[in-house]
Amino acid sequence: MIRSLPFLAVIFLIFRGELFLLGRAFGPAPDILGLVLCYSALRLRPFSGLPLLLILAILRSAYLPGGLLLHCWVLGVFYLLLRPLGRFFVLERLPIQMGLGLAASLGISFTTALLLQEGTLFLPARGFLGFGVTLALAPGLFFLFDLLLPLRIRQIPRKVFVE
Amino acid sequence: MHRLESRLPWFFAFALLLSSPWVLRDPRRRFPYEDWAAFGVTLLERPLSLGSMVFAHGKGSSVTFPMERSPEFELYKRALADTLLPKNTKRKLRLLLPVRGAQGQGAGGAPKGLRLVVPEGLKDYKVLEGLPAVFGESFVGRIEATKKDGLLLRFPWAKSKEGNPERLIAQARSQKKGQFPSLELIVEPAGTKDPFPLRVALANPNQAQTWTADRYPYWVRIGESRELHPDLPSGLLLGVLEDEGYPQTGFVLRRFVRPLFDPRALPVVAVLLPRGSEIAKGIPLPWEREPRTVKVEILWRSPRRLGVLRYLVKGGHPHRGDALFSGGRLRWVYDWAKEGLGMAVPAFAKGVRLPALALSKGGKPRALLLRGEGMDAEGHGLFSAPSLPGGKEKLYQGGWIFTGVAGKGFPAGLVVGKVKSLRGPLFVLETPKNPGSDLFVVAGRRER
Asked: What predicted TM-score, i.e. pTM, was given to this entire model?
């Protein structure tokens, strides 16, 4: 638990940065929490990934429209959709990390906007550039999280290629 | 991996499946303890700026200010005085009691009652037990004294303390000119799944048509009855007759009565006192007692790019749903709030519900529940009023909308806006050009 505290601190800092970046400093809004969710679904064990999902949902419900149940539900749906993909893809490959991160980010934004019937988290609100930045940040963040999290609470990649 | 851990995603998927109806039906629903979670993460996000505020919170050092009112508040006072204290009745025969908030859920989705404020100077308020109360011409219910030293208005569709539903003798007449039959009715509380809060137990004539365009609406007024309600004056309005049946054959299955006010939005009720009563003597009118307010500070505002703005605000002791105002105008409403910290959204944000008093251009008030529907391209707030029958919106074009009351932190009489125009069934409310710079909430720690 104590060894995962730096990771949690980074999550909080990232969220604050995301709120700052949203339309303030650079205009586009990267969905970094979408990337964190993607990482937790693909890399973390359920005992670590699900509490992290709850923290992400609380952060989103505090600052963005919608209740905690809604954010838990949306993040949970994409967590469960992404989780089995870890078996079929080699997660160390950068294009795969970028593709899955972007898919998670787009899916979360679109589903939330659809359920709330409000343009707040709608795709145009985040902007194409925002999703572009999300895509570009994905490999770096995956690497950073790998460094911060002890191997014990990470999941061992299940797909092993043997020549 | 542990066996339980390997099954955890399956349990989680099952939980998601079970919660889907709630999420899809009401995605903005917040649970009671969510505010604590939101407060906790916000404190972790901004430990330095918020820590000092939270530690200073318990000392109660905040300075309070008298409530500032807008110039339009005079319109509000005049409209309520004309409605609740008609000139032909003596002032002392009516006691005006401000409403604190709604309580319970009864027939037709309407609340069972309203919590009332016991005015200062009213010592023996238990003598009010059982007295009828009105809002304008409408009969709104009877007064009950609660165990917690408070007063409650029990609506006609709620059961009394003894558990007996009240039956009322009434007459229904068409409001259109012409020779149409009138109906003699016995009205009683409807069931919880019925569409309207009152239903007709017996009607004479049983199959008279009331819904055709030439004769609708039929207004239902209380008749005289020495046996059932000897204390109720005849002629008080119960609502509009609404029928269920087969329009092609003219066969009526069931009849209901829809009240002309939204029971969730009444700000004040007038108690009809018995002749010779001296209770109302010396008791000030509800709008003469103003709450104290406390100034709040904006910590963070969401980027404009997000669409509807959200504001992190600190100060006071607000609760979820409380109002933030400046210059007597309602500005924002708390989405969540805990320990002096809260996230506020504009009153027109989607999902916000405002108890309101709409004044028509002629100054006639109507209690409504407004729903925020976002804003238009010019930044004016859009609101819908689901309880207002279709076509009635036109009556309020050019009129004013004020807040009703929803607890101590949401005071009545704040200006929501002037009805600039109508967009279909939506009200377009004019945004004030020069809203005050300082923001306030009602002062004082309070229970919900």
From this structure: 0.84
